[in-house]
Amino acid sequence: MEVTEGSMSISTSLARHTVRQLIELGVEDVVLSPGSRNAPLSIALNQAAEKGLIDLHVRIDERGAAFFALGISKASGKYVPVVCTSGTAVANYLPAVLEAHHSDVNLLVLTADRPARLRKTGSNQTTNQENIFGGFVRHSIDTAAPIDLDHLLGGTGPVHINLQFDEPLLPEDSNDWLSGIHPVAKPEAKRVPGDIDVTTKRNVIIVGHDRAGFSVDEIEDFADDLAAPVIAEDPLVFEQAIAHAPIILSDERVRRDLEADLVVVIGRTTLSRSTNAYIQGSTRVMVIDPRTENIDTSRTADEMHRVIPRITNPVEIDQAWHDKWHKYEEVAAASLSVLPDWSEAEVAAVVAEELENDAALFVSSSRPIRDIESFAVPRGGIETYANRGLAGIDGNISTAMGIASKHDETYAVIGDLAFLHDISALTNPTTDTLTIIVVDNDGGGIFSTLPQRGVDGFEKIFGTPHGRDIAKIVSAFGVSCEEVRSTQELHIALQRIHPQLHVIVAKMPSRESNADAIYNVIKKYKELVLL
Prior knowledge:
By secondary structure, this protein is an alpha/beta fold.
């Protein structure tokens, strides 16, 4: 039924019109942070949730709420609205909006505002929220009147709608305004790939962590047509990927020996310096990434595509080329023998080995994601996620919780500083099956592997030891927790399934010893290459 403004407040009408459209456009999940100015939306959303039309998730911390919505969108591919009140609540969305922009994730930011007439008047909790996210959203609408959302949600990436709600904020009617509302299916727009002819045989495909939005099957079929080995920053979804690629390419002599006629980069390669050095030294580079159209517009390569092209004549496999890659793969695997029995590299390898098929895994930035790439043995059967748009350490727990809401069984590997950075997320612990492995090395372990290691004041300005007992902090939130201090203990801990949120704190020897272990692996690899 159509609701007229004459029978209710303008704010109630605006809220109901907005929620009605969200449901009709196929929105299934909405994340809400409590507040007063967003009361019209909160009430309308709750009424829709009570009728089973949406799933409403309430998160009290706006920054965490936005990352929670980001996680849901990553796992579902759908637009996920995140709703807040006015003022600083809006500003807390910025980190997740930046991540959504650079990752091209479908985040719909619905911010409540005072009427425009109250701006710059000293009115409480009123600031200029119009276009507050600048160029990091595809659309930014500031309105006190109902608008058409269909065209706004027709693409990908974050969208911001600033809704001005005037008094009264509460509904004054009891109309069954949700009667007859249902999603309206719309055809999905698809790009048509172009045709290309590849005559070279020494080809390599390098896949960034988010695969630029392409499926594993699409990429594997393309690799077969190119007869190309695959290097994946995320080796847990490509069973046939080259293992330990960052170690293999760490030696300049090896990079020259493996120089390709064509390197195809799918997505962004953001992790390994050695992999990027290999790309830069190649004869010809092709980039495939839809983000080059409106996000990474200054990116360059010898050839650019926004969809995976069709190979007109599939390439005949050069077995000697593949054998050479596998030879170095075996050498890299042998170099891992110098790793200590308990290390951060071993945590990555154990997690990759223990997870059951169909599990989801979120990997945080800094060392954990690099350790997965370097030390995990390639496999398939896992759905992986990471916030690699800006590779920040904020919002990791919240993102993992959002992802867990769309999977039966979810895991996350998060460094201790990233975990503490988002610790407020534990005030709203998920009831979904989520196990978080915290790699606790008492500080910023990645810096010990970077050139600034050993500079004056290193511990204070880079190492940043926190000295906190993470297991006790987690337990204080009433969340299930355990500590592990060996590979065997981690194996055992991961074999147990916990029906809700569970945290495993992997206590590591030290940041310095971990950096030494990585250095020793590279040193051993280079020695073995000379043999």
